[in-house]
Amino acid sequence: MRNLILSLIILAAGFESGCNDSIGKTEDRETKAAVTNTIQRKKVVVKDTIVTEGTFDSELICNGKAFARQNADIRFPINEEIQRIFISNGTYVKKGQVLAVLNAGQLKNKLNRSIEALEKAKVDLEDRLIDYGYRLKDSAKISNEVWRMAKVKSGYKNAVYDYTDAKEALKKTRIIAPFSGRVANLEAREYNTADNFKRFCTLVDDAEILVKFNVLESELSLISKGAIIEVHPFGSSSYAKGRVQSINPVIDENGMIEVRGSVTNTSGLFLNGMNLQVIIRKKVFNSLIVPKDAVLQRQDREVVFTYENGRAKWNYVTTGLQNREYIIVTSGLKAGDRVIYGNNFNLAHDTEVEVENEGTSSH
Questions:
Q1: What is the pLDDT of residues 153-180, one digit of tens each?
Q2: Which of 120, 121, 301, 332 is the most exposed place for a label (fewest CB within 10 A)?
Q3: C-alpha span between 131 and 114 (Å, rounded)
Q4: pTM here?
């Protein structure tokens, strides 16, 4: 009897537990369903703008390099001891300015000896002319052949050559700037002989900078000779404007075309060899324009979501030129469409959306 009562108690407890589990699972399902419905009812807040057709300011951005208009290595013309150097790196010098002086002692002696030799040769020349019945004062009457023979026999011609060489060598002890510019790569040091150095320095005329950059074959239509370029040093907000000077009519193995421009550098913003960012702008008329943020990459294709009756609609598009803010759409949209450009990364087709603000694109 006791066993029967114990069995009934256990059975009753199990039945009650089973009922409680069943009630708990039902409540869980109802809660999850409620949360799911709440999530589904929550709309994505987005920004949109209207597709317009108008004039697009294309912006082609290239990497370039700066080259000084004139750039020359200054070398020592003769091998003598360096006596004085009057410049340092960065010094601005004018054309004709003395940059350095070499020891001229030996060359002055050589010039003096050549002068004496020339004087002696003149005396000998007079003697030879007397042999032919003339004097130096009779030079207008002397035939070319007599002059030639007299100069050769007297050694006068060689004396003139030696004097000229000595005078020119002495001039070379003064290193003169061939043009105005700034000094760079100064290697030489005083009291060393000139042949210890590959060069004395480099002279750079960077008052005008040549800008060399490359464009793709497909971008050639955006640039022409005389077009305005905007040149920025990397890492600087400063810039200067210049113009395209030449376009090389050859496409290299990488499909690139070399373009050269020029920009004034009176402020010293650009240095020879500096890396640059070059921007070329051109107006393109009758273009469909949307914000760049509206264009997404999905399944290796470009997609734009449009707003229609509270839902996001998926549109495959083809794009063209772009600048820093906007891009041209060549197919997939039409003027008047409302494109979503804010909070659009996680959208799917037919996602319910709510527009935060409505506006018209400006560009």
A1: 889 989 999 999 999 999 999 999 999 9
A2: 301
A3: 26
A4: 0.60
